[in-house]
């Protein structure tokens, strides 16, 4: 007979299945408990027992296999540990399997197969389902600080380390919240729905009574953890204040616009016309040669000149042609620098440059 069991911290409920074999009388068998699913906490080791009794074979062959995600791999085969447990497992008493530093990845089905050639039932097996539990860590909670009355609000709670996946519960002012506010008369003034699988608490429309301190607890079979309390304030909208603020802003904008228009009409944004004394003749235009008139030529014996500027002469023109700059009173639309008056013997002609 063979006994299959498990030992380790928090060893508990186990769901098992009988080994399949011929219906003939057995000299070798595996003694089983009614259930064979081993639960334990993370960190410590675990021992999976496979004890043989009433066998006629002195040295039966033992094999351990790991079944995970529909794939079967060897754990103990050909008298040595194999696979991902090479450095973390050993065989005890020729049959039992000891796993050290158990992690969540070690959760799987472990099958002990016994081959006894001298027994009428040559092959028998036992299956142990190992579930490694991990206690949740403090979840991450997100709670809005302030929400106006009548608006929707969502509170979230997430935890990623616990195994199996934890369930979530929310508390307000240390009072547990139901999954649906409509199901509890105590929360008839609230309108929320709690999803314990995802950890979300959704308010379709918050009320003043929903203000308070909120926190979330994540829990599984290995333990529980909670986040810090966070305040959520529900406030009334001040419609009158909002309208008054909008009117103030519009009034300020109107005053600014009126001031700009008034300043523009008074000429604060228009440059003054250039006239007489303040006007300065432009520099010498390109292509214009200035000559001195007969009156400006110094008379012999005269120590001073007339001081008059010679009239410009158009390049290529005849000596009889004289030009002078347009008068200073010409409109600004025709700058003096581009207009000369030509003095011909036949009359006065304007020649643009």
Quick tags:
Immunoglobulin-like, 4 domains, six-stranded mixed β-sheet, 1 helix, 26 strands, protein homodimerization activity
Helix/strand layout:
Elements: E1 2-7, E2 30-31, E3 37-41, E4 46-52, E5 61-68, E6 71-77, E7 80-81, E8 89-92, E9 96-99, E10 108-115, E11 123-133, E12 140-142, E13 146-148, E14 153-158, E15 167-172, E16 175-176, E17 192-195, E18 200-203, E19 212-220, E20 223-226, E21 230-235, H1 239-265, E22 289-290, E23 312-313, E24 322-325, E25 339-343, E26 348-352
What is the CA-CA span between the terminal residues? 125 Å
**Proportion in helices:** under 10%
The assigned structural class equals: mainly beta
Low-confidence stretches: 8-35, 303-312, 328-334, 336-350
- What characteristic shape results from the CA principal axes? elongated
Query: How many beta-strand runs?
Result: 26
> Hey, roughly how much beta strand do the residues contain?
35-45%
The average pLDDT value, as a whole number, equals: 74
**In order across it, which strands form the biggest sheet?**
3-11-10-5-6-7
CATH homology-level superfamily of the largest domain: Immunoglobulins
Q: CATH fold name of the largest domain, please?
A: Immunoglobulin-like
Q: CATH top level of the largest domain?
A: Mainly Beta
One letter per element, helices H and strands E, the order comes to EEEEEEEEEEEEEEEEEEEEEHEEEEE
Q: If classified by CATH, what would the architecture of the largest domain be?
A: Sandwich
Oligomer: single chain
Task: From the alpha carbons, calculate the radius of gyration and give it in angstroms.
Answer: 51 Å
How many helices? The count is 1
Question: How would you characterize the largest beta sheet?
Answer: 6 strands, mixed
């Amino acid at each position: 007979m063979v006994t299959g069991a498990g030992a380790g911290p928090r060893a508990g409920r186990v769901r098992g299945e009988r080994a399949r074999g011929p219906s003939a009388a057995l000299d070798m068998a595996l003694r089983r408990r009614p259930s064979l699913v081993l639960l334990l906490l993370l960190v410590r080791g675990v021992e999976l027992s496979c004890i043989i009794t009433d066998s006629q074979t002195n040295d039966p062959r033992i094999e351990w296999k790991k079944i995970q995600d529909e794939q079967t791999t060897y754990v103990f085969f050909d008298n040595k540990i194999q696979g991902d447990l090479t450095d973390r497992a050993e065989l005890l008493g020729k049959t039992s399997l000891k796993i050290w530093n158990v992690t969540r990845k070690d959760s799987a089905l472990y099958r002990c197969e016994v081959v006894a050639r001298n027994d009428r039932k040559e092959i028998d097996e036992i299956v142990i389902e190992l579930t490694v539990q991990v206690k949740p860590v403090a979840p991450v909670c997100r709670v809005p600080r302030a929400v106006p009355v009548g608006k929707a609000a969502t509170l979230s709670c997430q935890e990623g380390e616990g195994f199996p996946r934890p369930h979530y519960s929310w508390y307000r002012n240390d009072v547990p919240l139901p999954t649906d506010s409509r199901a509890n008369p105590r929360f008839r003034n609230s309108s929320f729905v709690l999803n314990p699988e995802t950890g979300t608490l959704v308010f379709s429309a918050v009320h003043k009574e929903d203000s308070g301190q909120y926190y979330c607890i994540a829990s599984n079979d290995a333990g529980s953890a909670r986040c810090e309390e966070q305040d959520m304030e529900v406030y009334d909208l001040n419609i009158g204040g909002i309208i008054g603020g909008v009117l103030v802003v519009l009034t300020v904008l109107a005053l600014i616009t009126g001031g700009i228009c008034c300043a523009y009409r008074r000429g604060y944004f228009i440059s003054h016309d250039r006239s007489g004394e303040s006007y300065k003749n432009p520099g010498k235009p390109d292509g214009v040669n200035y000559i001195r008139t007969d009156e400006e030529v110094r008379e012999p014996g005269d120590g001073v000149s007339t001081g008059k500027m010679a009239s410009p002469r158009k390049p290529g023109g005849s000596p009889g042609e004289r030009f002078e700059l347009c008068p200073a009173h010409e409109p600004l639309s025709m700058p003096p620098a581009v207009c000369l008056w030509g003095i011909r013997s036949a009359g006065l002609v304007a020649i643009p440059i």
